[in-house]
Amino acid sequence: MATGAGHVNAVSETAQGVSGNVNAAKGIMADNEVVKSMDLVSAPVAGPTFCRLLFIFVAIGVCVFGVYTVVMGGATTWREPITTITTTRVKAVDYPDIYLCLAANDVAEIFPEMENNFFVSTLSVTDSRKLCGTAATMASLNVVSGKVLTKDNHCIYEEMQCASGAAKPIGSAGAALGCEDMEDCSKKTGDVAHQVALKSSPDVDKLQSTLPTYEDKDGTKWGAACLKIPAVKDKKGLAGSDPIFLKFKFSGTANPIYHVYFTKQGVPPVNAAGEIRGGSAAYAGPGLISVAELTLELEKDETISTPDKTFVSQYTSNMWTKLSVKANENHGKPDLGTQDKLTMDFKESLMGISFKSLFVRKTHIRYKTFLEIYTELGGIYAASIAILAFIFVKSGYVDKKEGGKEMYIFAYLPASMRVKWLAGKSAKGAKSAKGATAPADPV
């Protein structure tokens, strides 16, 4: 009877061991002895010699499979870019530096008509000269009252800058900057002439040389013509703040489109790789009032030919546009003798900017870090090693001859054979009192 009871207990213990195989499979990846290949090969195995050989074969096989999976499977994803996008709300957004350009084909068309016909200034030249010292800039104007409030909220931008030498067709071909018509251009405020001679900027030279050229039917090659409008340092705008305007008056027959590039304050529009960065917009030109509603995005791309070292400000825009109409001689009042009460102004256009939102999206494009690759490789390797847990499991017994290491045993043994193979072994964690005998064998 005692022997029968012993077998019942042994069978019960074996059943518990078999039911714990799933848990052993889950925990095998966390066991340092299993993860290390050399420990796998040298781990003690219960049973005849062929079980030991089978264990070594399986252990080496899963190790080789793990390495193969890492090299052939994981390596293909190591150079795939990772894109991380976060959105934050800021209190205010820095006004960008603005680069206003005429494309090469527009320059070819407008160039012969520029002199005495092309004027660029603020929307309120008198206020700008008084508060900012120049009207050759962009300035803010309250759209409700139509008035300038203070210098701080009006003088957002500094005086324009142009290209150097012969590369400045806007500045040297008769375009008048800082005044709104020939009469205004001929006057002075004190000793300061209304029509200004602009300072040159190497950033404008670089941008003009980067933009496409155009060759007309006569074989003359034309380049783009640009102006830089630098923001006053550290000037910031709020969402919904008054738009900042620049006024163009052109009496010629051409209909140019103005291309604008926005960059972070003090940052050139063309980077070291010759790429135009920062954001852009196109203003439709004469006959329209256009406002670019800006949203700031920060982008850092470490995968391009010249990786970004810092986040680059990218200004995206939605264009708000309205026809530039004026009342006729009847001041907009209905008159049966007048066919139209409003007329389009095709000689003037207003270009403005404002901020649409204070939510800033930050985009980071990069390759995986060494730690991420190492973690990924460890996961792939550990997953392949886990295959071993479905064939051999830890027995819960140790072999003193093997240095007290826990023995592995074939997972699908009959209960009686399991008991037989573990005979003479000690239960893991069992301690004997001083002078006492070792724990009983599992029989």
Please give the structural blueprint.
Elements: H1 2-19, H2 21-27, H3 32-35, H4 37-42, H5 49-74, E1 82-89, E2 93-94, E3 97-102, H6 104-110, E4 118-121, H7 125-132, E5 139-140, H8 151-154, E6 161-162, H9 169-172, E7 176-177, H10 182-185, E8 188-189, E9 192-193, E10 199-200, H11 202-210, E11 214-215, E12 221-222, E13 225-229, E14 236-237, E15 244-250, E16 258-263, E17 280-283, E18 288-301, E19 312-323, E20 325-327, E21 342-344, E22 348-355, E23 359-366, H12 370-385, E24 392-399, E25 405-410, H13 415-421, E26 426-427
Parallel strand pairs: 4-7, 6-10, 18-22, 18-23
Antiparallel strand pairs: 1-23, 2-14, 3-13, 3-16, 4-15, 5-15, 6-13, 8-9, 11-12, 15-22, 16-17, 18-19, 20-21, 24-25, 24-26
Helix pairs in contact: 1-13, 5-12
Question: What do these coordinates show?
Answer:
With 443 residues, the chain is of the alpha+beta class. The protein has 2 domains: 2-76 and 370-427, no CATH class; 89-365, no CATH class. It has 13 helices and 26 strands. The chain has helices at residues 2-19, 21-27, 32-35, 37-42, 49-74, 104-110, 125-132, 151-154, 169-172, 182-185, 202-210, 370-385, 415-421; strands at residues 82-89, 93-94, 97-102, 118-121, 139-140, 161-162, 176-177, 188-189, 192-193, 199-200, 214-215, 221-222, 225-229, 236-237, 244-250, 258-263, 280-283, 288-301, 312-323, 325-327, 342-344, 348-355, 359-366, 392-399, 405-410, 426-427. Strands 1, 4, 5, 7, 15, 18, 19, 22 and 23 form a 9-stranded mixed β-sheet that branches. A hairpin with a 2-residue loop joins strand 8 and strand 9 (192-193). Helix 1 crosses helix 13 (415-421) and helix 5 (49-74) packs antiparallel against helix 12. The two termini are 14 Å apart. The model is unreliable at 1-36 and 432-443 (pLDDT under 50).
